[in-house]
Amino acid sequence: MSAPMAHPTPASPARLLITGASGFLGWHLSRQAQTTWQVEGTYHAHTPPLPGVSLHRIDLTDATAVDRWLEQLAPSAIIHTAALSQPNRCEQDPDRSYAINVEATRGLAQFCAQRQIPLVFTSTDQVFDGQAAPYSEASRPNPINRYGHHKAEAEALVQALHPAAAICRLPLLYGPPSPTADCFLQGFLRTVRSGQPLNLFIDEFRTPAYVEDVAVGLLLALENVHGLLHLGGPERLSRYDLGLRMAEVFGFDKTLVIPSRQADVAMTASRPPDVSSNSAKAYGLGYRPRKVSDGLRATKDWAIQEQG
């Protein structure tokens, strides 16, 4: 039997804990969630500017301190976005990856299960090997890099410890940077603005999603989902095609976007060739991610507003 959902009221706002509030996704999610929740956010190194959010500096890998702190905070629900999410870094520092991506998740799942409160865990499309896309919630994980392995192990832990939890597999995310975290898009733009070529794969496919749309999807999952949910974007694009869309929207020379292949580049972590998502289940809940060109234009407009 699933836990009753805690709904905020003006007299007694429900307290939503968002881990990783200083991260790219966590920052956008914290802003979005404030419309209906009293938001508490964690950060580790960088204090994120988040008016209206109560911020807590805490090391999620310190299980004893986290347990004691959670008891005092007594959240009504948790969305766990904190992660070591760069595959190359996970390959280079497997112990830290395991501590953050697996063990910290275990502790949060146990806490939520004991109190029967809702939990959303953010996983990744990297749990798949890229050989049988598009992937739905029924697809069997078969990761080929350490990040994917650790996220798949964390998914299994959450399912075993707290079956009522939602496990949201996220795609490649893009959008405006948070004050303390970029996404890949900002790095791409810095490269081309310096006049340097951008070598992008023609044989790596994703279903990218605009970060604020995914934030809405996570809040939908918190209210409506037990088990797996894919929150991919509406279009399957290669990295190269994504670069061409960026050139079109941001107005830089398309000849700076150079087609390349995965085999051309030595990478620390193996990369699956096609992890595009089938997100029909989320669409049925009202998830409506915008097309990539629309998301890129929204990112550009955000930057103009920030400069203005």
How are the SSEs placed, and which strands pair?
Blueprint (H helix, E strand, L loop, with lengths): L14 E5 L4 H10 L4 E6 L10 E4 L5 H11 L3 E4 L6 H6 L1 H22 L3 E6 L21 H16 L4 E5 L2 E2 L9 H10 L4 E4 L3 E2 L2 E2 H14 L2 E4 L6 E2 H12 L6 E4 L19 H6 L6 H16 L1
Parallel strand pairs: 1-2, 1-4, 2-3, 4-5, 5-6, 6-11, 7-10, 8-13
Antiparallel strand pairs: 9-12
Give the gist of this structure.
The protein is of the alpha/beta class. The chain has helices at 24-33, 63-73, 87-92, 94-115, 146-161, 184-193, 211-224, 239-250, 280-285, 292-307; strands at 15-19, 38-43, 54-57, 77-80, 119-124, 166-170, 173-174, 198-201, 205-206, 209-210, 227-230, 237-238, 257-260. The strands form four sheets. A seven-stranded parallel β-sheet has the order 3-2-1-4-5-6-11, with helices on both faces.
Describe the structure.
40% of the residues lie in helices and 16% in strands. It has helices at residues 24-33, 63-73, 87-92, 94-115, 146-161, 184-193, 211-224, 239-250, 280-285, 292-307, and strands at residues 15-19, 38-43, 54-57, 77-80, 119-124, 166-170, 173-174, 198-201, 205-206, 209-210, 227-230, 237-238, 257-260. Strands 3-2-1-4-5-6-11 form a seven-stranded parallel β-sheet, with helices on both faces. Helix 2 runs parallel beside helix 4 (94-115). The model is unreliable at 1-11 (pLDDT under 50).
- Unreliable segments (pLDDT under 50, ≥5 consecutive)? 1-11
Averaged pLDDT: 93
Figure out the total of helices. 10
What is the H/E string?
A: EHEEHEHHEHEEHEEEHEEHEHH
